[in-house]
Each structure stands twice: as C-alpha cells, then as structure tokens.
Amino acid sequence: MVDPAPPIYHRAIYHLCTLSEWRAAEAEGVYNGSSQDAADGFIHFSTAAQVVTSAAKHRAGQAGLVLLSVDPAPLGEALKWEEARSGDPFPHLYGPLPVTAVSAAVRQQILEPPPAATAVMPVTTVRSRWTTAVTSTAVLRGL
Prior knowledge:
- The chain has 4 helices and 8 strands.
- The protein is of the alpha+beta class.
- The chain has one domain (7-132): Protein of unknown function DUF952 (ADP-ribosylation fold), CATH 3.20.170.
- The strands form 3 sheets. Strands 1-4-8 form a 3-stranded antiparallel beta sheet. Strands 3-6-5 form a 3-stranded antiparallel beta sheet. A two-stranded antiparallel ribbon has the order 2-7.
- Strand 5 (79-83) and strand 6 (89-93) form a beta hairpin.
- Helix 3 crosses helix 4 (123-135).
- It is globular and about 35 Å long.
C-alpha cells in the first residue's frame, strides 16, 4: 500500500466508463463503478500520466465510452493510492463516486482493438485519441 497520496497526485484523476453507466450515475447522483470495479471492491482511477496506458490495456475495442475527470479532494479517505503490479501508485475509490466530484465527462470514440500480433495496443495509437480528452477543460454533462 502506498497511501497517503504524494502531493503531486492531488490533481485530477480519471476513470473510463460506458455512456450508459454515466447516464445512470447522473440520474442517481452517484457512480458505483463498472462490473469489474464491483468485482475488485473499488473504483479504478488513473492519473493523467497513466490513463492512456490504462485505456489501451482495459478498454481497447470498446465503443460508447466516457472519460471522467474527477477532483480527488471531496473523495476524502475513501480514496486510497495503492501500488499496482508495475510499482506505480494508482488511485482506488472504496465507495461510490459522487457525480458532483466529476469536473468533466467527455464522450470518446471507439478505441481500435490491438493488432493480432500484439497483446496490448501500442500507446502511440491510443495517445492521439485520449490525450486531448485528458487535457480538456470542457465540462460535458447530459451526454
């Protein structure tokens, strides 16, 4: 475990969900995570430096995704920074995500599946699709 978070990580954190999951969260006022999050017992997040690689690894080939930009401050002690297999600290939220903590929700196009010869999509292929959204300040609600 790596908690508490180093000061550099108190910027926005990011999560990818489906458009239907986001719409349900807006209606309920909270996002409870994906089925994978539920299986793991926490909602997975990434930093700006991690989100491109995470998208390539976990969301390649999926359509109808929404990139959530989240202010970590209101999440309090429910947000834990834990070491992944890579050794990098990743933010994990142990509890629901209040929609009010989401500063931007940006709808994404489909991520192309990786070529058959590779296990993971090259980051350069994904970077052009995700970097703009990660650095965007636009707030899109009611997608």
